[in-house]
Amino acid sequence: MPTREVSARIDFEVTEATELEFQIAVAHRRGVLVEEELTFTANGRDVAATEFAASHGGRIHVLRDVAPTSGTAWYRARIEVQDGRDDAGTAGATADLHDRSLYLRPSRYVPVDRFYPFAASEFGTADPIPAERPYETAAAVTSWVAKRMAYLPVSDSHTDAADTLLASAGVCRDQAHLVIALLRALNVPARFVAVYAPGCDPMDFHAVAEALGPDGWRVYDPTGLAPRNSLVRIATGRDAADTAFLDNHGGSLNLTGTTITATVPGALPADDPAERVRLP
Amino acid sequence: MPTREVSARIDFEVTEATELEFQIAVAHRRGVLVEEELTFTANGRDVAATEFAASHGGRIHVLRDVAPTSGTAWYRARIEVQDGRDDAGTAGATADLHDRSLYLRPSRYVPVDRFYPFAASEFGTADPIPAERPYETAAAVTSWVAKRMAYLPVSDSHTDAADTLLASAGVCRDQAHLVIALLRALNVPARFVAVYAPGCDPMDFHAVAEALGPDGWRVYDPTGLAPRNSLVRIATGRDAADTAFLDNHGGSLNLTGTTITATVPGALPADDPAERVRLP
Amino acid sequence: MPTREVSARIDFEVTEATELEFQIAVAHRRGVLVEEELTFTANGRDVAATEFAASHGGRIHVLRDVAPTSGTAWYRARIEVQDGRDDAGTAGATADLHDRSLYLRPSRYVPVDRFYPFAASEFGTADPIPAERPYETAAAVTSWVAKRMAYLPVSDSHTDAADTLLASAGVCRDQAHLVIALLRALNVPARFVAVYAPGCDPMDFHAVAEALGPDGWRVYDPTGLAPRNSLVRIATGRDAADTAFLDNHGGSLNLTGTTITATVPGALPADDPAERVRLP
Amino acid sequence: MPTREVSARIDFEVTEATELEFQIAVAHRRGVLVEEELTFTANGRDVAATEFAASHGGRIHVLRDVAPTSGTAWYRARIEVQDGRDDAGTAGATADLHDRSLYLRPSRYVPVDRFYPFAASEFGTADPIPAERPYETAAAVTSWVAKRMAYLPVSDSHTDAADTLLASAGVCRDQAHLVIALLRALNVPARFVAVYAPGCDPMDFHAVAEALGPDGWRVYDPTGLAPRNSLVRIATGRDAADTAFLDNHGGSLNLTGTTITATVPGALPADDPAERVRLP
Predict the structure, then answer these.
(1) What is the pLDDT of residue A84?
(2) What is residue B229's three-state secondary structure?
(3) What Rg value do the Cα atoms of chain B yield, rounded?
């Protein structure tokens, strides 16, 4: 797979002392080589962040006790995917059981407890049943969401998948939440991934869904904004509550600018919707 | 149209002094003859209720300052519909404008503001547009709701039409709310009617939707529990908030029994879903 | 009471054929003299609106079949309040019963069914009980809302009083909804009024709450943005769903400008929070 | 600390083939000795469950491909707490950062994103700020919730902490969610624990909140149904979505009986609300 180059620059202004968490560094994953640079400045000086591990290779960088000031987070990485092997075979049955259990549960933006009847009514009558053919079900759900949703910034930090179903519109995050809600309701484990997305236009942080089947996790994107096989994983979790690129605990903050880049050498690869794509 | 006979007996126990409102008497409507009896007893004695007019011929009977006691409301009526003429011609254009405005608005259990995109996505692409053929649209929406909803008591006093869409289930009140929400979202004025329903099984108070078109209001019932042309109108409003058969203001109350009857002489008439039925 | 002069200019652009409803004309009320001018233009020409009566003297002006075009609504009025007599005495007991029943019910933005326990827990333990001293209760609730809410534009067309309670912020419409929700939950009938508000800064359409007590309706405004005794009633209803200054049925529309004025001659009167003010 | 003895018997009837997950076994925790027995029977025979690890020592037992049948889960354990040492010192700073990040996030039943303004308005004005004295804040919030909530079964599987705030009532699960929501909103990490609770009356599975401070996690219980220092941890997570004692994936199931026991030898210890209690 090709090399990808990504970067993020986040300018912020702390107006009341706070603690900041960043999820902008590429996840540590088997067979993914990352050469990277990450710096934080506040008040014109470099400041040190503490890194700790989030789930599925994700990494969180925290700046504690940030006094009111302006600052910048700057990240740059060159990624090479050396090894296409799947998690499924290596991680083994117990990890699968854990993930299967976790990613069927309701979460903040994916209240699957409210979706069972609607999902059954819309998708559930097929034979074999949806959960027995998870990848086909994920493709069908993704296509349904793609067809019904307008890509529009109508959501806010309270918008969950039930709101998005009614709104029939949303950005990448909302559409991924709706795919995940319908899949979990059909008994297909599904999770949320924040990614760098070469080809995304306008370029920004992007978000997609992953569904778990017999061969492991596969990636689905109802927005079709970027080819799936060039995506670079940042953070993985139940929904957007787990993957915010910037979290602010206790104080106040304004974002004054974000610039994201993500490229592959040469032309972007095509994305065949019928293909099952694994996100390393 | 045939004679109908209806009755309601409501036994209650006031546990904290309160004011009670009943909407159990048949509405006063043009061409509808009602011979009726209505008595209230509390603590073993007859008590007097005050009647006042609600919208569209509805009548509310209020008992003020009811001390803790057990009581009964007893209603019995014989209804003859003498005159099938429509409201539309008689009430005239201004009443139509008023109703049209009122019954397109969002209400407690019909938050139509949340339904526009979903309704457009599910029904809105037809030509001519749904609002230009209101009765056909009402029939199509009713049929869609009937097909997707299970008749199950999954709702409570907070359940609105958006909840019902996700639950894919509800009782008559919930299904009527969902029909009304979709219709208003498609720009077809729609309202809620509490009725006596000969043939309803199990027998109980029933609720249906009405849609406004060029010939006036027509009645739609996704539950199909009773033939529409035998229904008897009690209360009419925006949604179930306007038609509760018993409202309690300020104190506490237990219902200890309700018995409803509604009959027509001879066999029940058939209900052809394709027919447009006016509810007197 | 002093003369008031008000005006509203609303510029709009219809992008898809629609029907428009305006509620910008001052309500017809006993003892209120209105000298006014109201014109609508579309595509550079005068167009005729149809007026019909809304509740409590409100008037709705409707433009049917407005083709895509730019247009303007222009209203100007001079109001004199000749007569301070109350509705209560004149309208009589039956109207009171009707209003009392109507304005205790849940409505779209005032889901009082969800507020009973919270209101009881926050306000309900007093003796005499809140419903027996409605004006004192309304003053206490208004003061509580004023203290807890920031005046911030955090709401949208889906925001109800429960959302506002959590958000602890909102504009006049939201704060009025929260006052009304708490009052209805305490068994005090309460309604929503859209008004012209001399002194409001920034000048805009304004909204307040009214509470019903033994002397009739009295007006409460948690925002304190304008003296209550200079307000001019436009529309009255259950909540903002009944009083939108512009409703669009079926098509699409952009607002391109609104300019509101409202003045009294000389200095604004003071508003003593302890005073009970009747809005004519 | 005293020995505790606990047991759970869960009888169920599978009506459509499914996969079952049980969280009824006591968590594996440092210094907690557990001697236990766990058996599953279906259709009269013993069946084998697969155990996998959940977070914080929790254990999930899964029965896959359970055909329609009646069955029983039977668990019995004797617990001795040998070692009162805290996690905080041993687990170290990185684990703390991880937990701190995780348990400030919004989750399904704890939509903290909706609680910031309300919590700030109710608790936030103190000096020092609430997050700087997490245990005092947790005690204050617990006491506030205890005072405002009735212990009533008014909730269902969709009820979140915002619903509970309005309802002013709920069972242990709901009250714990509300405590957690207010704490996270005040920047105090908080999580949900399902426990065996000697002394609980009526005896059932119980749920409490934990708050993170400089000395580690401490337990808070607004219901006061059982002394905190006798609780036995089963499952720990963001909210009740992570700790269901029985989850059903894909099929249908009826619970036909649950019997829980939990005892300590001799008299129950007293629970001093002012004491900070660590749950092993």
Answers:
(1) 58
(2) helix
(3) 19
pLDDT at C10 > cutoff 60: yes
For residue B24, give both structure tokens. Answer: 């159990």
Q: Are residues A107 and A237 in the same domain?
A: yes
**Contact across the interface for B166 and A121, Cβ inside 8 Å:** no
> Are D78 and D106 within one domain?
no
Q: Which domain holds residue C42?
A: 3-83+247-261
ipTM for the assembly: 0.95
Tokens of A251: 């104080």
> Does residue A257 carry a pLDDT above 70?
yes
B193 part of a folded domain = yes
Q: Is residue C277 part of a domain?
A: no
Provide the edge-to-edge strand list for the sheet that holds D32-42: D45-47, D32-42, D69-81, D4-16, D252-263
Are C183 and C100 contained in the same domain? yes
For residues B98 and B222, state if they share a domain: yes
Judging contacts by C-beta atoms under 8 Å, the chain A residues touching residue B121 are 148, 168
D224 within some domain: yes
Is the minimum CB–CB distance between C125 and chain D shorter than 8 Å? no
Which helix or strand (DSSP H or E) is residue C170 part of? strand C169-170
Mean pLDDT over C12-26 rounds to 96
- Compute the nearest-CA separation of D153 from chain C (Å): 14
Q: What is the pLDDT of residue D87?
A: 53
Task: For residue A107, list chain D residues with Cβ-Cβ distance below 8 A.
Answer: 107-108, 241
CB-closest option in C114, C131, C250 to B187 = C250
Predicted TM-score (pTM) of the model is 0.94
**C28 touching chain B per CB within 8 A:** no
Residue D207 lies inside a defined structural domain of this protein: yes
Element (H, E) at C102: helix C87-102
Residues C151 and C193 in one domain: yes
Verify whether the Cβ–Cβ distance B94 to C250 is below 8 Å. Answer: no
> Mean pLDDT across the stretch B239-245?
98
Q: What is the pLDDT of residues D150-198, one digit of tens each?
A: 999 999 999 999 999 999 999 999 999 999 999 999 999 999 999 999 9
For residue B84, is pLDDT > 80? no
Q: Both A19 and A37 in a single domain? A: yes
Closest C-alpha among A69, A19, A59 to residue A38: A59
Q: Does B33 share its domain with B58?
A: yes
- Residues A148-198 pLDDT 10s: 999 999 999 999 999 999 999 999 999 999 999 999 999 999 999 999 999
Residues whose CB is less than 8 angstroms from the CB of residue D261 and which lie 6 or more positions away in sequence, other chains included: D5, D6, D7, D8, D203
Calculate how close chain D gets to A239, using CA atoms only, in Å. 9
Which CATH number does the domain housing residue C71 bear?
A: 2.60.40.2250
* DSSP code per residue over D105-147: S-BTTB-GGGTHHHHHHHHTT-SS-GGGSHHHHHHHHHHHHHH
Domain total of chain D: 2
CA D240 to chain centre: 7
Whole-number Å distance between alpha carbons of A271 and A264: 14
- Residues B102, B184, single domain; the answer is yes
Q: Who contacts D18 (Cβ-Cβ below 8 Å, separation ≥6)? A: D66, D248, D249, D250, D251, D252, D253
When CB atoms are compared, the residue of A115, A148, A167 closest to B166 is: A115
For C23-44, write each residue's pLDDT tens digit. Answer: 999 999 999 999 999 999 998 8
Is the model's pLDDT at D26 over the cut of 50?
A: yes
Estimate the crossing angle of helix A134-148 against helix A172-185, to 10 degrees.
140
By CA distance, what is A112's nearest residue in B? B166
- For residue C113, list chain B residues with Cβ-Cβ distance below 8 A: 108, 157-158
Between helix C134-148 and helix C172-185 the angle, nearest 10°, is: 140
> Which residues between 177 and 236 in chain C have a beta carbon less than 8 angstroms from any beta carbon of chain B?
187
